[in-house]
Amino acid sequence: VVQLVESGGGSVQSGGSLRLSCVTSGYTYVSYSMGWFRQAPGNKREGVAVIDSDGSLTYAESVKGRFTISHDNAKNTLYLQMNGLKPEDTAMYYCAASEYIVRVKFREEEYNIWGQGTQVTVSS
């Protein structure tokens, strides 16, 4: 059974940093996309960042220059380093994985495995 388990969320002040982690288990695909999505109350879920098995990186415009996605193969862990956090970054953050390299990176339907989410709250 493939599982994704997020951690690292919390409450910080504007300008602060957090690092989210997503540990994967039972995931053995050679070609894949893994990403972070977020959903704020009353909003649709949106893509934040995606990393492909070939090393390609994709970021939402709103987080470019502030967030960094990475994947440690040895630890089977996906990370999202978030710096310069803003109140508008407040949301539940989810990691997601696909069994192939996704063409439309932030299309949720392409990802068949999701974590349970971790809350990030940024106060002004």
Layout of secondary structure:
Elements: E1 3-7, E2 10-13, E3 18-25, E4 33-39, E5 46-52, E6 57-59, E7 67-72, E8 77-82, E9 91-97, E10 113-114, E11 118-123
Parallel strand pairs: 2-11
Antiparallel strand pairs: 1-3, 3-8, 4-5, 4-9, 5-6, 7-8, 9-10, 9-11
Helix content: under 10%
Binned strand content: over 45%
> What characteristic shape results from the CA principal axes?
globular
Uncertain stretches: none
Series of H and E elements: EEEEEEEEEEE
Please provide the count of β strands.
11
Description:
The protein has no helices and eleven strands. The chain starts with a strand and ends with a strand. It has strands spanning 3-7, 10-13, 18-25, 33-39, 46-52, 57-59, 67-72, 77-82, 91-97, 113-114, 118-123. A hairpin with a 4-residue loop joins β5 and β6. Strands 2, 4, 5, 6, 9, 10 and 11 form a seven-stranded mixed β-sheet that branches. It has a four-stranded antiparallel β-sheet with strand order 1-3-8-7, with no helix packed on it. By secondary structure, the protein is mostly beta strands.
